[in-house]
Amino acid sequence: DVVATVACTAQELPPQRRVIDESAERVRRVKAYPVLCGKSVGPDAVSSPEMSPGLYHEGAAMEYGTIPGVPKRVSRVIYGTLFLNKADQPFELLDAVWASGCNTFDCAKVYGAGECEQILGKWIEEREIRREELVVVTKGGCNGQEKLWSANISEDAIRADIINSRDRLGLQHLDLFMLHRDDPAVDVCVVVDMMDQFQREGLVTAWGVSNWELHRLQAALQYAKAEGKAHPVCDSMQFSLAQPTRSVWPDTQYMRPESREWYAKTGTAVLAWECLAKGFMAGKWDRSAVAKAHAAIADPETISHLEPTGSTAAEWREMQLMIAYCTNENFDRRERAAIAADITGHSVAQIALKFIASQPFESFVLVGTTKAKNWRENAGGGAAPLLTAEERAWLETGAGECPFKAPDGPFSTLFNPKLLAVVT
Predict the structure, then answer these.
(1) Which residues contact 195 (CB under 8 A, 6 or more apart)?
(2) pTM of the predicted model over 0.70
(3) Which single residue of 52, 153, 209, 343 could bond 141 by disulfide (Cβ 3.0 to 4.6 Å)?
(4) What is the pLDDT of residues 236-279, one digit of tens each?
(5) Which residues contact 421 (CB under 8 A, 6 or more apart)?
């Protein structure tokens, strides 16, 4: 297992592994990228051996993109720390995340009431992760579930959120800070001026938004560029092959097909959450849920007793998800993803994540899990090869013949996740 500490010499390892022995008899680092056509694949493939302690999987190489204003490569699959405080062994989980080639972590002040940021910060310190290799994203300006995640984007509140997150993480600055919710009563000019000031003070390298209506983001971008101020560089919303019928949660937004062209045109990056539609793309629910969702929509009184807090919270959440995702069109998409998975040797979840990571704009997949095994599978959603425009279109619409083909060539085994365990 490449995630375990390896106690052997470089001569004993397969040729695609590079071992750096930095502490007497103990091997601290394994760079396990494959070498294809004479070129190493993966982050820092051509950099010096002065790497952070970290083990990288020798499977399919993680793909990387860029977020404007963030001067580092960003892994296509980003680890979301939402449930990090619930993991049995959080450090071992984070080791597995880093080992997959993921160098980007998504946090928020409301995740575990700050505990998730503290855990990540301690891991960064203990593992001696080099700051120049690490991308840390966090969010603020949002109340907790008791207030239905409502916005609080006053200057004092946001400054406190930035400083407190920075302190919990043990960092001098944040690579990217996003406003977790929007308050339409606050003029976008005021928001831009505030975030521009924080960026000038060096508290954040870049800033973006999460769950803003598109017209508000467009206005903020237009004002910032006209005034020469720091502009929002990214947007975070629900985005999945399973298209929701409405916003899934209060005061959140989702990617509409007609909006995608704007992100490509403006260069605004997308950090997509709930990409597996809360388990829908992994097999949760069957078509019988369509009738249940339709019944709830037709007669809202049948679910009016459900509340987002208290004893009915779990049932309330389940109904929100069923209403949003359980449509015949989405079940058709899931079935096409299953066909693609069978042909390519990937899982259905990996196909669904590749759909997001392969968009014609800078699109990144946020994945949160408490299990290293689940992470390793999901990380394959950001691994090469990604999907073509023809493959994406077929998954979404079903028009034409299935364009997916079984992998072939000398590296087909390397890129087949189902055979990877045999190879390693």
Answers:
(1) 158, 177, 179, 204, 207, 230, 232
(2) yes
(3) 153
(4) 999 999 999 999 887 789 999 999 999 999 999 999 999 999 99
(5) none
